Amino acid sequence: MNIQENFCPKCGGPTKNDGICNKCLAESIKWIVAEPRVVCVFCPTCGSIKQGNTWSDTTLERDVLAEELAIGALNVHPDVQDLRLSGSSYEPSPNRTKCMIHAEGTLYGIPMKEDLAVLIAWKKEQCDRCSRLSGGYYEGVIQVRATDRTPDTHERGRVESIATSVEDNLIESGERLSFVSRIDNIKDGVDIVISSHHIGDLITKQITSELGGKTTRHPKLFGERDGKKIYRITYLVRLPRYRRGDVIEVGNRYYEVRSVESGTLKVFDLQEGIMNVIREDDSYRIVGNVRDAQYVTVSFIDGDMAGILDPDTFMPISIPALAWLHLAEGSEFRILRDRENDRIIPVG
């Protein structure tokens, strides 16, 4: 033994330290401790949990959440390395979960082991969102209507899908208090009851972006919160008379409406196969919509004529083989029937 080696004053063994050896030092330190009891406040309706004054959604099963809470209740010495944790749990009562955590690690090069017990106490409390939902709270109503008509089935379905999609995105981003309280499909259109102005702005913007039209807002004061005035807003979304995909007759020509903007229609000329812009006018006759078009197959091409089977009568007929369709024998394309003029309109 080298005479210059240090000796541990506690156990007498050799040490490279100036004081006690690593073994005695590790044994003298409480390397890991746990809070014996953790209270978790959760919403019995939606399962969200409360941390401080903030509610957050969780998809974890109760036993997994309990073990995470137990691990969060651990206090580990900063010099511990290679920490490994494993756990198990059981429920001694409906509102209690007992978690057993087995911990292993190294402290100053000395292997350490410890078994710790943490009791999770579950406390029920209705969350902020469910409280508003059960109380019928709302800050706005979106009324979706259409000009000189009622919204069709497709538009009603898209409006509902847009509303629920926007709600899902906001909730996923953590905005818990922006939600759709109710969707009513009524005779004149669709009414959407909403909990915040933010979700109202997002839904109306997406509806008009996809389906056209414009939105007007009508606020009404209904109270104060924390000294701030609170308004309920009625959003009136007025869909255009002409829908995207409508085929209209203008001056004995047929056009497909591609968009409606500021009193003008962007249309596709179904004769020439080119885009055009015409003014919006309620005198145009709506023949149908391309969503309702029928598929037909070209049986032959003869010069500038194409042969098909009439989808209503199953009789062979000939129609113009318009250049923009690029038809060939055996190819498929869609048609609409103008029943008023007894014409077949290729729509691509």
Summary tags:
about 350 residues, alpha+beta, 3 domains, six-stranded mixed β-sheet
List the helices and strands and how they pair.
Elements: E1 6-7, E2 14-15, H1 22-28, E3 32-34, E4 37-42, E5 49-51, E6 54-56, H2 62-72, E7 74-76, E8 80-93, E9 96-107, E10 110-124, H3 128-134, E11 140-146, H4 153-172, E12 180-186, E13 189-194, H5 197-211, E14 214-225, E15 228-239, E16 246-250, E17 253-261, E18 264-269, E19 274-279, E20 285-289, E21 294-297, E22 300-302, E23 305-309, E24 316-320, E25 332-338, E26 343-346
Parallel strand pairs: 4-10, 11-15
Antiparallel strand pairs: 1-2, 3-7, 4-5, 5-6, 8-9, 9-10, 11-13, 12-13, 14-15, 16-17, 16-20, 17-18, 18-19, 21-25, 22-23, 23-24, 25-26
Helix pairs in contact: 4-5
Describe this entry's structure for a reader:
There is one protein chain. With 348 residues, the chain is α+β, with helices and mostly antiparallel strands. It folds into three domains: 94 residues; 104 residues; 101 residues, no CATH class. It is 17% helix and 48% strand. The chain has a six-stranded mixed sheet. Strands 12-13-11-15-14 form a five-stranded mixed sheet. A hairpin with a 6-residue loop joins strand 1 and strand 2. Helix 4 crosses helix 5. The longest helix is centred in the middle third of the chain and has 20 residues. The protein starts with 5 loop residues before the first strand and ends with a strand. The model has no long low-confidence stretch (mean pLDDT 90).
The residue fraction in helices comes out at 10-25%
Structural class by sheet pairing and helices:
alpha+beta
- Pick out the low-confidence regions: none
Overall mean pLDDT stands at 90
Q: Major beta sheet, specifics?
A: 6 strands, mixed
What is the topology, as strand order, of the major beta sheet?
6-5-4-10-9-8
Number of domains: 3
E-strand count: 26
Gross geometry:
elongated
- End-to-end separation: 97 Å
Gyration radius from CA atoms, angstroms: 35 Å
Strand content: over 45%
Q: How many DSSP helices?
A: 5
